[in-house]
Amino acid sequence: xxxxxxxxxxxxxxxxxxxxxxxxxxxxxxxxxxxxxxxxxxxxxxxxxxxxxxxxxxxxxxxxxxxxxxxxxxxxxxxxxxxxxxxxxxxxxxxxxxxxxxxxxxxxxxxxxxxxxxxxxxxxxxxxxxxxxxxxxxxxxxxxxxxxxxxxxxxxxxxxxxxxxxxxxxxxxxxxxxxxxxxxxxxxxxxxxxxxxxxxxxxxxxxxxxxxxxxxxxxxxxxxxxxxxxxxxxxxxxxxxxxxxxxxxxxxxxxxx
Length: 257
What we know:
It is built from 6 helices and 15 strands. By secondary structure, the chain is α+β, with helices and mostly antiparallel strands. The longest helix has 20 residues, at 237-256. It starts with a helix and ends with a helix.
């Protein structure tokens, strides 16, 4: 495992911050200051940061939170708007969210005390399941794009006004079900394997269909079930087991790179 990844996995620092610590001679392997940013940590290595031994972190905690409409997925807001952390005990304020849901969206947010777990899950192709409501019909063109994917040169409709992303490639949906299809509004259940910026709002915005409601109900096999809005729970034993298994697979794959 690369040295910056080892540090981010086992401490509060990000990989970028770890690189800076290495450049500033704050990291040792045994008694030797390490300066090689590409150094691969071995099982026998003892890593020290600021002179303190870095314990290998094998355990992590994950929370499932049911985000309410009108909450931001951020630590603080310069406009004083409510965030998900306002509903969480201070003991969880250092937990990192796995991805985002925008201000008006609701549903499942995973939070973890492990930066490595957060990064792996955000970058994963684990399935995300959503219920959404759009204005107008679900058209044949939408169905075709959900089945086969879409490259949108202009994917600005549905995006945040400050977003600099203008085009986007959408992979085929893993699954979708049209629950209601009418000229006023339509309801769908969709499953995707990406977590791009406002992906679903941009996808339907490309077809001039505004998403009026969006709720995430599942991420990587972890479901909201009966969890009420504004409440949280820990992963179950079986959910932790599945996540540990997935992390082990990613770790072994990464070690071969």
